Amino acid sequence: MASSAAVPFWRAAGMTYITYSNICANLVRNCLKEPFKAEALSREKVHFSISKWADGKPEKPILRSDTPGV
Amino acid sequence: MFRQASRLVSRSITAKSALNRAFSTEVPSTIDSSFVEAWKKVAPNMDPPQTPSSFMKPRPSTASSIPTKLTVNFVLPYASELSGKEVDMVIIPATTGQMGVLPGHVPTIAELKPGIMSVHEGTDIKKYFVSSGFAFLHANSVADIIAVEAVPLENIDASQVQKGLAEFTQKLASATTDLEKAEAQIGVEVHSAMNAALSG
Q1: Of A19, B80, B172, B188, whose Cβ has the fewest other Cβ atoms within 10 Å?
Q2: Is there a contact between A31 and B179 if contact means CB atoms under 8 Å apart?
Q3: B70-154: which CATH topology?
């Protein structure tokens, strides 16, 4: 049975709302004037440290960061 | 004894559930008294079970007369742009079009599309370009607007908008997979909205 509700085009393409919203926000941030653009981009920097656990102990963590070399 | 208690619960609830369903705006003070009596007969030393509604704070009551001002809470993930500000009107870029919100607006949940949100206070109009988000309009004339990114129009660089628009229009033409097409179309929509905001 085809879906009865009209879905937005991004939902039909398999994207979730959060992904859509974040893409929109990134596009807006990239079109800002300096210095607002630099502020916005530095505000949105993320830094992850991910470690898998084995035998109740964490293995070596993987770092993911916007600032390389950290 | 407890097996009988569950039978009593299901019997009294099914008999009354259709009639007892109160509107969500009413204060949930209507505890089913026949259930409480039946419970006390079976288990007099135990308190009757609580239901989720007894833990909820009652909704703020809707004023009998429409308030003169709209209270706006406009929040972003990193800052609270407007907090409890009393204004005359707010125009939000809902997916169904520009929606004007006055005090006493019917309760609504609106998904926002990239566009201009304007806050009108007397003769003051403050405009923001909102990337996307939601607006919750409550019965007591409080509007909660949440957006991921909202910038005053002066902070947008027109030349970058034009560049982005051209780039995404071109990407849309050359996109192959559904996902690429969707991303390119989002790009076109956001940049056209920014373009319209700057020129309008």
Answers
A1: B80
A2: no
A3: ATP Synthase; domain 1 (2.60.15)
**pLDDT tens digit sequence for A14-68:** 999 999 999 999 999 999 998 899 988 888 888 889 999 998 888 888 888 877 6
Put simply, the answer to whether A20 touches B186 (Cβ < 8 Å) is yes
Q: What are the domain boundaries of chain B?
A: 21-59, 70-154, 156-199
What b/e sequence results for B36-73 when a residue is b if at least 16 CB atoms lie within 10 Å of its CB, and e otherwise? eebbeeeeeeeeeeeeeeeeeeeeeeeeeeeeeebbbb
In tens, the pLDDT along B43-74 reads 888 888 888 888 888 777 777 788 889 999 99
Residues of B in contact with A9 (CB under 8 A): 182, 185
The verdict on A2 touching B (C-beta cutoff 8 Å) is: no
Nearest CA in chain A to B132: A21
pTM strictly above 0.95: no
For residue B63, which of B139, B143, B116 has the smallest C-alpha distance? B139
